[in-house]
Amino acid sequence: MNVLLSWSSGKDAAWSLHVLRQQGTPVGGLLTTVNDAFQRVAMHAVRETLLEAQAAAAGLPLRKVRIPFPCPNEVYEAAMAAACRDAVAEGFTHVAFGDLFLPDVRAYREQKLAGTGLQPLFPLWGRPTAALAREMIAGGLRATLTCVDPRVLPPRFCGRAFDAALLDELPPGVDPCGERGEFHTLAHAGPMFAHALDIRVGERVERDGFAFSDVVAATPA
């Protein structure tokens, strides 16, 4: 078994890496889609430089799948299919995802991997998210909210730490792990990393119906 982990830069992907390693499952690399127009992780809006810092701290090679902006679904799927072919050619046998409970998302991933030579893994699947969120925090994971959907969560939450205080303040109906897209995060410390990333929260902007906080390296390279 050689596992490629779908890496969003957020807490669920980071905790998946921790869980897989605890289980003794060999993870050989990280796979991330990068918005080529802005050099940021798709949806999470994490800078590519911080993505690279995460991979270095995790001690894993990083595979970037570059996609345009905007990106039609057929273009995204073609790019991911090419990445899967390359992964198989290099000896990968599985792709792991940090999905938690949305059956349509899981079914989509399973369908797209069928026949590729890669098997899907879902190390966090089915865990109650209220307990899982607090398990992550108690286990040392540190993350910052980089994107918030203001239709369900006030923009003031953007840029905040993913911690117990935040969980206590989430409005009713918001999933504690943001699994329905209520928020996205950047993981910057935890047992999956050899060292913490030194970061600071920059400006907050609203565009395309979402609120984003620009997290940057505290000490620019």
List key phrases describing it:
221 residues; Rossmann fold; 6 helices
Structure description:
The protein has one domain: HUPs (Rossmann fold), CATH 3.40.50.620. The protein has helices at 11-22, 48-58, 73-89, 103-113, 129-138, 164-169, and strands spanning 3-6, 27-35, 40-41, 62-67, 94-96, 119-121, 142-148, 183-189, 199-207, 210-217. The chain is of the alpha/beta class and 221 residues long. The longest helix is centred in the middle third of the chain and has 17 residues, at 73-89. The strands form 2 sheets. Strands 1, 2, 3, 4, 5 and 6 form a 6-stranded mixed beta sheet that branches. A 4-stranded antiparallel beta sheet has the order 8-7-10-9, with helices on one face. Helices cover 30% and strands 26% of the residues. The mean pLDDT is 96. The chain is built from 6 helices and 10 strands.
Brief sketch in words of this structure:
With 221 residues, the protein is α/β, with parallel strands linked by helices. It has helices at 11-22, 48-58, 73-89, 103-113, 129-138, 164-169, and strands at 3-6, 27-35, 40-41, 62-67, 94-96, 119-121, 142-148, 183-189, 199-207, 210-217.
Number of domains: 1
Helix content: 25-40%
Number of strands: 10
Order of helices and strands: EHEEHEHEHEHEHEEE
Beta-strand residue percentage: 25-35%
CATH architecture heading: 3-Layer(aba) Sandwich
The number of helical runs is 6
Distance between the termini: 36 Å
- Poorly predicted regions are none
| Relevant CATH superfamily | HUPs
Structural class by helix and strand composition: alpha/beta
CATH class: Alpha Beta
> How many strands, what sense, and barrel or not for the largest sheet?
6 strands, mixed
Overall 3D form: globular
Mean pLDDT score, rounded?
Answer: 96
Rg calculated over all Cα atoms: 16 Å
CATH fold assignment: Rossmann fold
